[in-house]
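Teaching assistant here, posting this on the class forum so everyone can see the example we discussed in section. The complex has four components, and the goal was to see what a joint structure prediction looks like when all of them are supplied at once.
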Amino acid sequence: MPERRKLSEAEIATAVKKLKGWKVVGGKLHKEFKFADFVGAFGFMTSAALIAEGMNHHPEWSNVYNKLVIDLSTHSEGGITGLDVELAGKLEKIGSPG
Amino acid sequence: MPERRKLSEAEIATAVKKLKGWKVVGGKLHKEFKFADFVGAFGFMTSAALIAEGMNHHPEWSNVYNKLVIDLSTHSEGGITGLDVELAGKLEKIGSPG
Amino acid sequence: MPERRKLSEAEIATAVKKLKGWKVVGGKLHKEFKFADFVGAFGFMTSAALIAEGMNHHPEWSNVYNKLVIDLSTHSEGGITGLDVELAGKLEKIGSPG
Amino acid sequence: MPERRKLSEAEIATAVKKLKGWKVVGGKLHKEFKFADFVGAFGFMTSAALIAEGMNHHPEWSNVYNKLVIDLSTHSEGGITGLDVELAGKLEKIGSPG
């Protein structure tokens, strides 16, 4: 069960090390994705939307064609929490088999 | 058939008058949408994605929870074209009957 | 909180009366939807998918162009439960303001 | 450019040989997919929906949780055409890099 508690800088640094391509930008977990085309980008976004709705924890994101930028933070806590780390981890698994 | 030609300021002004809630910001057709919740926002985004793919003309857009910001322009022409006006018009009809 | 308990025929009959266009077919809550086009149908399906994932309770559904058929039941209970009634009710609200 | 012409049995047999997991069932191109979960299934469906809308050629499909069944045929021609073979081929590429 992820914690809805603002993580310390050390905790965030440890978490980010385990996430491929994520870094901290402007106090948020940040990643830039590039897909083959819009079909690839928006299919990923739909899987991500389902995961987010299932967690009741939603991303800030922007898309142009095959590019997607995601920023994760927990507004109510004013920073990065265990929820953000969990959501980032789940996004990494989209498209993997079973 | 919409024109892939950069519209004049006068043409854009005329087109914008017919579009509800759209204005020109930074040389792009711009609108900010607000939905009941993420479910409403992302359902709309999916319909919009289908329309965009059908036109092979895609938006710049960003979303947080129930908010969605869309900017339309035609990169190859360096400005707003008939394609953008047509896409904006089609987005206005999402959710309407028949 | 909806009950994950098989409802009696009387309970189902009462629930169905409050749902527009739903009936019991083959022991499942059943509705046939018709939209303006595929864009309308699949946008609705995406909102429905988000709701279903949020409840961790998923529909049986089939789609061709602008037509969508949804059947709801709870496999683990072998029939229609409060979860199905709740999901049907939430689907009725897709596209409504706030 | 795919042909909107009913293919002969020999043409269909040749086409099916190149498509992984597709066969002819009831006069339609048919495939059954299984994903890790609903998130995987519906993300795929959204990419497929975008491809279909871009071709203006839509599938018959049904989904339950992680299972998806797709049937392709061209109603106006009363059988399997080059459009169906092309759509099946594009669905095979969803999720592949670039």
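For the discussion questions: The longest strand of chain C covers residues 28-34. The mean pLDDT of chain C is 95. Think about how each of these relates to the inputs above.
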